[in-house]
Amino acid sequence: MTNKNISKEEVDNLYNRLVISAKKRGYFLNHDENYAKNIVRGLLFNEKRYGYRSCPCRLASGVRAEDLDIICPCYYRDADVAEFGACVCRLYVSQKVYESKEVIKSIPERRPKKEFSPKADQPLAERFKNMPNEIKQPNHLSYPVWRCQVCGYICARDQAPGICSICGAAGERFSRFI
Ligand code: SF4
Protein backbone atom coordinates (compact mmCIF):
# COMPACT_ATOMS: atom_id res chain seq x y z
CA MET A 1 0.00 0.00 0.00
CA THR A 2 1.31 3.45 -0.83
CA ASN A 3 0.21 6.66 0.81
CA LYS A 4 1.95 8.91 -1.68
CA ASN A 5 -1.25 10.53 -2.97
CA ILE A 6 -2.12 12.02 0.38
CA SER A 7 -0.79 15.54 0.90
CA LYS A 8 0.70 16.84 4.13
CA GLU A 9 -2.07 19.44 4.21
CA GLU A 10 -4.79 16.77 4.10
CA VAL A 11 -3.10 14.89 6.93
CA ASP A 12 -2.67 18.04 9.04
CA ASN A 13 -6.31 19.07 8.48
CA LEU A 14 -7.76 15.76 9.56
CA TYR A 15 -5.28 15.40 12.41
CA ASN A 16 -6.24 18.85 13.75
CA ARG A 17 -9.94 18.06 13.48
CA LEU A 18 -9.47 14.77 15.32
CA VAL A 19 -7.51 16.49 18.09
CA ILE A 20 -10.31 19.04 18.58
CA SER A 21 -13.04 16.41 18.47
CA ALA A 22 -11.11 14.12 20.85
CA LYS A 23 -10.61 16.94 23.36
CA LYS A 24 -14.32 17.83 23.30
CA ARG A 25 -15.31 14.24 24.01
CA GLY A 26 -12.67 13.27 26.56
CA TYR A 27 -10.51 11.18 24.22
CA PHE A 28 -6.77 11.48 23.68
CA LEU A 29 -4.71 11.06 20.53
CA ASN A 30 -1.26 9.46 20.75
CA HIS A 31 1.19 12.00 22.16
CA ASP A 32 3.65 11.09 19.37
CA GLU A 33 2.35 13.45 16.73
CA ASN A 34 4.36 11.94 13.87
CA TYR A 35 3.07 8.50 14.70
CA ALA A 36 -0.53 9.71 15.00
CA LYS A 37 -0.22 11.53 11.67
CA ASN A 38 0.94 8.34 9.98
CA ILE A 39 -2.21 6.61 11.15
CA VAL A 40 -4.26 9.59 9.95
CA ARG A 41 -2.52 9.25 6.57
CA GLY A 42 -3.62 5.62 6.49
CA LEU A 43 -7.20 6.63 7.25
CA LEU A 44 -7.17 9.14 4.40
CA PHE A 45 -5.69 6.59 2.07
CA ASN A 46 -8.43 4.11 2.91
CA GLU A 47 -11.01 6.83 2.41
CA LYS A 48 -9.68 7.37 -1.11
CA ARG A 49 -9.49 3.67 -1.78
CA TYR A 50 -12.81 2.52 -0.29
CA GLY A 51 -14.83 5.69 0.21
CA TYR A 52 -14.71 5.40 4.00
CA ARG A 53 -12.02 5.63 6.66
CA SER A 54 -11.53 2.01 7.56
CA CYS A 55 -8.94 1.16 10.18
CA PRO A 56 -5.44 1.28 8.66
CA CYS A 57 -4.34 -1.55 10.96
CA ARG A 58 -6.90 -4.05 9.73
CA LEU A 59 -7.77 -5.67 6.46
CA ALA A 60 -10.96 -4.13 5.06
CA SER A 61 -13.32 -6.00 2.75
CA GLY A 62 -14.00 -2.89 0.67
CA VAL A 63 -17.74 -3.36 1.28
CA ARG A 64 -18.89 -0.60 3.60
CA ALA A 65 -21.69 -2.63 5.21
CA GLU A 66 -19.21 -5.37 6.14
CA ASP A 67 -16.62 -2.94 7.43
CA LEU A 68 -18.87 -0.74 9.58
CA ASP A 69 -17.28 -2.04 12.76
CA ILE A 70 -13.79 -1.00 11.65
CA ILE A 71 -14.57 2.47 10.33
CA CYS A 72 -12.62 4.83 12.56
CA PRO A 73 -13.46 5.20 15.38
CA CYS A 74 -14.06 1.46 15.42
CA TYR A 75 -16.47 -0.40 17.69
CA TYR A 76 -13.50 -1.75 19.66
CA ARG A 77 -11.75 1.52 20.49
CA ASP A 78 -13.33 2.27 23.87
CA ALA A 79 -12.89 -1.25 25.21
CA ASP A 80 -9.27 -1.41 24.04
CA VAL A 81 -8.42 2.01 25.46
CA ALA A 82 -10.01 1.03 28.77
CA GLU A 83 -8.31 -2.38 28.95
CA PHE A 84 -4.96 -1.85 27.22
CA GLY A 85 -4.49 1.92 27.21
CA ALA A 86 -4.78 2.27 23.44
CA CYS A 87 -6.79 1.24 20.41
CA VAL A 88 -5.31 -1.36 18.04
CA CYS A 89 -3.66 1.34 15.89
CA ARG A 90 -2.61 3.31 18.98
CA LEU A 91 -4.13 6.44 17.47
CA TYR A 92 -6.36 6.81 20.55
CA VAL A 93 -4.83 6.29 23.98
CA SER A 94 -6.04 6.55 27.55
CA GLN A 95 -5.46 9.72 29.55
CA LYS A 96 -2.90 7.83 31.66
CA VAL A 97 -0.92 6.74 28.60
CA TYR A 98 -1.20 10.20 27.06
CA GLU A 99 0.13 11.90 30.17
CA SER A 100 2.85 9.37 30.95
CA LYS A 101 3.89 9.16 27.26
CA GLU A 102 4.10 5.41 27.78
CA VAL A 103 4.80 3.50 24.57
CA ILE A 104 2.20 0.79 24.05
CA LYS A 105 3.65 -1.97 21.92
CA SER A 106 0.79 -4.16 20.76
CA ILE A 107 -2.89 -4.62 21.39
CA PRO A 108 -4.61 -7.98 20.88
CA GLU A 109 -7.29 -8.03 18.20
CA ARG A 110 -10.76 -7.80 19.72
CA ARG A 111 -12.68 -7.93 16.45
CA PRO A 112 -14.51 -11.25 16.21
CA LYS A 113 -13.16 -13.52 13.51
CA LYS A 114 -16.66 -14.29 12.31
CA GLU A 115 -18.53 -11.64 10.40
CA PHE A 116 -20.22 -9.14 12.72
CA SER A 117 -23.82 -10.12 13.20
CA PRO A 118 -26.73 -8.07 14.57
CA LYS A 119 -27.80 -11.34 16.23
CA ALA A 120 -25.47 -10.34 19.04
CA ASP A 121 -28.48 -8.58 20.55
CA GLN A 122 -30.58 -11.72 20.52
CA PRO A 123 -30.13 -12.73 24.20
CA LEU A 124 -31.74 -9.45 25.23
CA ALA A 125 -34.74 -10.08 23.00
CA GLU A 126 -34.96 -13.56 24.50
CA ARG A 127 -35.12 -12.07 27.99
CA PHE A 128 -38.03 -9.83 26.97
CA LYS A 129 -39.96 -12.73 25.47
CA ASN A 130 -41.31 -14.06 28.78
CA MET A 131 -42.08 -10.71 30.41
CA PRO A 132 -45.71 -9.68 30.97
CA ASN A 133 -46.94 -7.30 28.27
CA GLU A 134 -47.39 -4.33 30.62
CA ILE A 135 -43.71 -4.56 31.53
CA LYS A 136 -42.56 -5.44 28.06
CA GLN A 137 -44.30 -2.59 26.34
CA PRO A 138 -45.09 0.28 28.70
CA ASN A 139 -45.54 3.63 26.91
CA HIS A 140 -41.97 4.78 27.35
CA LEU A 141 -40.74 1.56 25.77
CA SER A 142 -42.96 1.84 22.72
CA TYR A 143 -40.04 3.42 20.83
CA PRO A 144 -37.34 1.27 19.33
CA VAL A 145 -34.06 1.54 21.21
CA TRP A 146 -30.85 2.22 19.33
CA ARG A 147 -27.31 1.55 20.47
CA CYS A 148 -24.17 3.24 19.15
CA GLN A 149 -21.77 0.41 18.37
CA VAL A 150 -18.81 2.72 18.89
CA CYS A 151 -19.38 4.08 22.41
CA GLY A 152 -22.47 2.22 23.66
CA TYR A 153 -24.74 5.29 23.85
CA ILE A 154 -28.39 4.19 23.90
CA CYS A 155 -31.42 6.19 22.87
CA ALA A 156 -35.12 5.45 22.32
CA ARG A 157 -36.64 7.17 19.29
CA ASP A 158 -38.35 6.39 16.02
CA GLN A 159 -35.11 6.24 14.08
CA ALA A 160 -31.43 6.06 14.92
CA PRO A 161 -29.92 9.55 15.29
CA GLY A 162 -27.98 10.98 12.33
CA ILE A 163 -24.93 11.33 14.55
CA CYS A 164 -24.05 9.99 17.99
CA SER A 165 -24.30 12.85 20.44
CA ILE A 166 -21.64 11.25 22.65
CA CYS A 167 -18.85 10.11 20.34
CA GLY A 168 -19.86 11.71 17.03
CA ALA A 169 -20.11 8.42 15.08
CA ALA A 170 -22.41 8.51 12.03
CA GLY A 171 -25.99 7.27 12.41
CA GLU A 172 -25.39 4.18 10.29
CA ARG A 173 -23.26 2.87 13.14
CA PHE A 174 -26.25 2.50 15.43
CA SER A 175 -27.94 -0.85 15.61
CA ARG A 176 -31.39 -1.73 16.90
CA PHE A 177 -31.00 -2.79 20.53
CA ILE A 178 -34.62 -3.47 21.51
S1 SF4 B 1 -9.99 3.75 16.71
FE1 SF4 B 1 -10.07 1.74 15.76
S2 SF4 B 1 -10.24 2.22 13.59
FE2 SF4 B 1 -9.49 4.07 14.56
S3 SF4 B 1 -7.31 3.94 14.40
FE3 SF4 B 1 -7.89 3.06 16.38
S4 SF4 B 1 -8.05 0.85 16.00
FE4 SF4 B 1 -8.06 1.86 13.99
TrEMBL record:
Keywords: 4Fe-4S, Disulfide bond, Iron, Iron-sulfur, Metal-binding, Oxidoreductase. Heterodimer of subunit A (variable subunit) and subunit B (catalytic subunit). Heterodimeric FTR forms a complex with ferredoxin and thioredoxin. Its EC number is 1.8.7.2. Belongs to the ferredoxin thioredoxin reductase beta subunit family. Residues 146-174 form the Rubrerythrin rubredoxin-like domain. It holds the Pfam family RUBY_RBDX. One of its GO terms (molecular function) is 4 iron, 4 sulfur cluster binding. This is ferredoxin:thioredoxin reductase. Catalytic subunit of the ferredoxin-thioredoxin reductase (FTR), which catalyzes the two-electron reduction of thioredoxins by the electrons provided by reduced ferredoxin. It is an enzyme of class 1 (oxidoreductase). Coiled coil: none annotated. It catalyses: [thioredoxin]-disulfide + 2 reduced [2Fe-2S]-[ferredoxin] + 2 H(+) = [thioredoxin]-dithiol + 2 oxidized [2Fe-2S]-[ferredoxin]. Its cofactor is [4Fe-4S] cluster. Transmembrane segments: none annotated.
